[in-house]
Design goal:
This is DUF4918 family protein. With about 220 residues, the protein is of the alpha/beta class. Helix content is about 45%, strand content about 15%.
Length: about 220
């Protein structure tokens, strides 16, 4: 039987996004690089070398300091080595959303236990950069119109593997949740979608209450 590791490595390295994007937006597609392919291969073989069922988390889309570097969602280079035990050639930088997510992962019991039960993906599996800055798929109506078929196809492929369809964790409780919920009403991927505040919002505006938000995440997935 195909393992998650095999499925995910093929999934990310065979993505075929639209070639051109509107309004000077560029794709963030690190999995095209051989070095990143080697790193995600190590990550998937370490944590996903089985075919057991997982509950899916879906963020918005990768950013240029986290998954845009490592190819692993909500995992910047520092978290990749410190918490996942995977050495890499990347600059040892962190990213605030990754810091929050790994606080949750550590409280849950560590990366091995967490990834045994969950997979973190994104509504759009690839990220976007506009004039050197991150942009989300929903920030530009023309961009969303262009990439929606790619988003739908990518999500269809992702949920076709051994995903628990009873619930999905949506990381980003406002625009990301609304869009994902609209798609779910059309395609019936999940029985329930649980929205949670985005880690960047928590770390930027609610840093004094981080522990409360970590507990909120843990309660949602318990």
């Amino acid at each position: 039987m195909q393992t998650w590791a095999d499925f995910l490595l093929h999934y990310y390295t065979s993505l075929q996004p639209p070639d051109s994007l509107p309004n000077d937006v560029q794709w963030l597609f690190p999995q095209k690089e051989k070095t990143v392919q080697e790193i995600i291969g190590q990550f998937f073989r370490k944590f996903y070398n089985d075919s057991g069922q997982r509950i899916l988390w879906l963020g918005i889309n990768p950013g240029r300091f986290g998954a845009g570097v490592t190819g692993v969602n909500f995992t910047a280079p520092r978290q990749l080595s410190q918490y996942c035990g995977i050495e890499h050639p990347f600059k040892s930088q962190s990213e605030i959303s990754a810091e929050f997510i790994y606080s949750v992962i550590e409280q849950y019991g560590g990366a091995e236990l967490f990834y045994h039960h969950y997979f973190i993906g994104s509504v759009c599996p690839l990220g976007f950069v506009q004039h050197g800055k991150n942009i989300n798929y929903y920030d530009d109506k023309q961009l969303l119109q262009k990439v929606e078929p790619f988003i739908v196809d990518s999500l269809q492929r992702l949920v076709s593997f051994n995903i628990n369809r009873q619930r999905c964790i949506c990381v980003g409780g406002e625009k990301n949740f609304r869009y994902l919920n609209d798609l779910n009403e059309k395609y019936n991927w999940f029985d329930e979608i649980i929205p949670l505040p985005h880690p960047r919002f928590v770390m930027q505006y609610k840093r004094k209450s981080v522990r409360e938000y970590v507990d909120m995440y843990l309660k949602a997935i318990s």
